Amino acid sequence: MNTFLAALSLGTSRGAIFALVALGLVIVWRGAGIVNFAQMGQAMFSTYIASTLITNGYSYWLAFFTALLSGAVLGALLDIFIMRPLSNKKQSELLSSESMRAAVPVIASLGILGALQALAGIIWAAEERGFPAPAKEEGFTLAGTVLPFTSFDLFVVSIVTVTLILTTLFFTKTGIGLAMRATALNQEVAKLSGIRTNRTRTISWAISGAASSLAGLLITPTSNLSPNTLDLVLIVGFTAAVVGGLDSPVGAVLGGFTLGMVISFVTFYDTPEDVFLAILAVLLAVLIIRPRGILGSKDARRV
Amino acid sequence: MLKIENLVTRFGSVVAIDGISMQAQESKITTVIGANGAGKSTLLRTISGLEHPSSGSITWKGQSIIGKRPEDIVRLGIAHVPEGHAVISELSVEENISMGSLFRRRKFKSDITPAIDEMYALFPRLKERRKQLAGTLSGGERQMLAISRALVSRPQLLLLDEPSLGLAPLVVEQIIDSVNILCRSTGLSVLLVEQNANTALGVADHGVLLALGKVVADRPASELKADAKLRAAYLGY
């Protein structure tokens, strides 16, 4: 029984973080039509900024919000200086075919990931460092027994819930959310409707940058911070986004929790070595049974 | 109102528009007809800023609009309905329409809902289906939606590219009629590109016949319609 509760609790808090990563991927997918593999590189970078502030004596919350802000700024800069020039090079031979036009930004995002990791290594050295949690990492006590669910876990879960609700409302109820979806779905019609598509894409990158920085801040207390720490998180988060449907925020969160649970239960009841096998099995099962993902719309996935 | 002079648009080495000069008159329907490949769509795409001309001028209300972006040109009052029922299938009917009025939501806040309601009055079938995804609509309804998306921005000039494409004659008639009524009642200017010359010349005031990127004839629509020789040579009927 205790093992079960422990697995459930770890699955919930890990799932919440994977959900956040997946959410960040979904935002850029919906707002700019790109799968952004550099995302956790951006998150790692802003987590390092937070870590530097904390070691220099500033408060956790100042570091926290600075990291979110720098995540947003970094996302916007990457779009303005790398992605926008790439996608606007309409006449170049490289981008003349439809499939290349879809592939080039994805490859560029992998390049950005490598560059960010190298840069972080240069600036902060490639050694691991710890990162604090904003809430206690001791389990809640219920009737004398210590539960495996900590106040930090509660913090993570509530932050993810709030982020999900805000993102969904933002996409469906606001004008800028509609503009973002229109830009990703059909740039030409969006432009003809008067939507400033360049600006809209930059906003998507900024929001996604902040969301993934949030994920970085929440996952590093349980692991450690190094330039490559978040690679695994990205792989799981990407799988979660695909499982959930890539264009659905709710699907991303469902996918995140599904994978969190799978990982946690495999770790507790089987061995941690089988975790990746299990992730792969889930991905394959979804791709075979329901290729569009749990909540994805019909032709969301063209990459 | 809209004046085009010696316009040339190229795609690589292919000259799609080869020195076109023409006008769209205020509160009139001007139609551009011609066979497939005559450069009709490219002409509209160049006006709305989707393609860049290599030379020539486009003047709108006395001002050059060459080099401006599509999203700025629509703000100047020129709305383009591109070929092929251009709507976003993954968005609902309601979202497709309000997308067209997004850029007005600050300056003309009180006019957003009335403008959308006018579209529903013009095409009541869209109102019935406003929660449906645009992808589930019939071809005719999609065309109505594409036109509404453009009209909701309250343009002074509507660029309409082949609204009849792939639609049943009865539906075409209904759509063309709506545009005609709108032009006559509100003073909207229309630049209508059509391959179906008969339909287009039936409603238009003025007609411009294109062939291989050049203007072959530029006359009142009734004259163009009556000219059996031109019809036989360029339109094949």
Structure explained in plain terms:
The complex is a heterodimer of chains A (303) and B (237). Helix content of chain A is 72%, strand content 3%. By secondary structure, chain A is mainly alpha-helical. Chain A has a two-stranded antiparallel sheet with strand order 1-2. The longest helix of chain A is centred in the first third of the chain and has 31 residues, at 2-32. Chain B has one domain: 3-Layer(aba) Sandwich (Rossmann fold), CATH 3.40.50. Chain B has ten helices and ten strands. In chain B, helix 3 (93-99) runs parallel beside helix 6 (139-151). Chains A and B meet through helix 6 and helix 7 of A and helix 3 of B.
Please give a handful of descriptors for the protein shown:
heterodimer; A: 303 residues; mainly alpha; ABC transporter involved in vitamin B12 uptake, BtuC; two-stranded antiparallel ribbon; 11 helices; 2 strands; 72% helix; 3% strand; globular; B: 237 residues; alpha/beta; Rossmann fold; six-stranded mixed sheet; four-stranded antiparallel sheet; 10 helices; 26% strand
